[in-house]
Amino acid sequence: MLANETANMYQAQVLNQPSALVRMGDNQELYHSTLEAFLCESEELITLIARDVNDLEEGYERSIRGAHSLKGSAATIGAEQLRDAAQTLEGILKANDVLAYQVHVQHLEKQHQAVVLAIQGILKQSSTADLPQLSTSSASEHISIEQLIELLESSNMRAFSVYGEMLLHADAVMLAALEHIQDAMRTLDFKTAAKQLKKYIIGSN
Amino acid sequence: MELFNCNVANVLVVDDQVSNIQLVYQVLHNDYNVYMARSGVEALELIKTQQPDIILLDVYMPELSGLELCCILKDDPICRDIPIIFITSFTDPAQEVACWEAGGVDFIQKPINQLTLSRRVKAHLTLKFQADALKRSANLDGLTKIHNRRYFDEQGPALYSHSLQSNRAFSVLMFDIDYFKDFNDRYGHLAGDDCLKAVSNCMKSVIGDEYTVFARYGGEEFILLVSGQLLPQVRTLIESVCQAVAALKIPHESSRCSDYVSLSAGAVFCQVPELTQLKYLIEKSDELLYEAKAQGRNRVMIKEFV
Question: Which listed residue, A25, A137, A148, B271, has the most CB atoms within 10 A of its CB?
Fold first, then answer.
């Protein structure tokens, strides 16, 4: 109980959940799916910021973009300290202040780690609380793999929900096909996912 | 009054961040068809096949920024009327000005408030559908429901310039219902209205939509512009239209050229449109129509512009 309370206090410090939930219409499931998306995406942004800053002008531009994107993502989930850190870093990068960057990027990484830990705690709690899944498509809806390919090729976001639904009800053969496109689906690279799926089907026939 | 069904609307989200696309999708998926593009270039490609009703556009993207994409779309006559809402975390007033100047209709500030997002999208979709309905209604002839003179005056020159640019043959065809005044005198104006409706719908069903402009030009006169068809094809088309109207077999006792409602037609075909002007071709086809009438009506006069 005490451990839980400490964890909650820690989460409250790095994540302003009430404010984020107000913006999301008090929709817990929506909030959790946004936290999951943040976990997937933010590591890449941190790498982008740290790696590219030394890489002449083009890399510098990418670092600014990374800091800008991280600022937006952090604000979405209510990670206000991380948002402020990313905003400061964006300003430092725009001002071309290399010394300040070295100091501040470490602070940003620490803030990011704290947010990641807090999110992991929240998602762990929610998985034990048995929250209903986001209703993104009707469970009774039967969609064939050809229809999924069609949705992917037309960049229809319904492909994303259908994919999730198919994963839940897939047999072993279907599961193998769907897992084959997992990375492309995670990054919403629908064109690649469609190509990979087609190739996989042809290969397995 | 036309009813709007926003649920069939296509919303395109353009953002280089997956989490933003997913968030927007989660908020809007129950109400609209949501499409996505992860870059400006991807969006341009997608818009060619999936014309969206509204675009939610991130400002800060690599390669082609949201502002640049917005300017490209506003310069394109086909995409210019699609409302674009910028999604931005900018706090700089100069950036806000740049978004308005690029042609955006509104902003949604990051972090996104789901209610603001859904209400703004709904409001702009409703405005867009109302504007579309007004435009459709302003371009249609109230009686026959085919395109009217206003539409012709707008779209005729556009089709002609397209022919000029793509070096395609161009034809102007004019049709007139024979002895229509006598028809009205014999059967009354209500029957005259029914006749006009039947004839125009019949003509429309014969004429394809692609590379044509067809409109009611005056009382019982119709005009058709055809781009990219050669003389034999134009001749076949004009004859098919006249035969289809004759096949309606609308009795016309006051006609002195047929027992049924018939058409006279004048047409001019131009292989190289850059040698002339649309106005001249219209005048020429009008003269040929008068010639067809002078020669006894219920006939076609077609000439090639040399």
Answer: A148
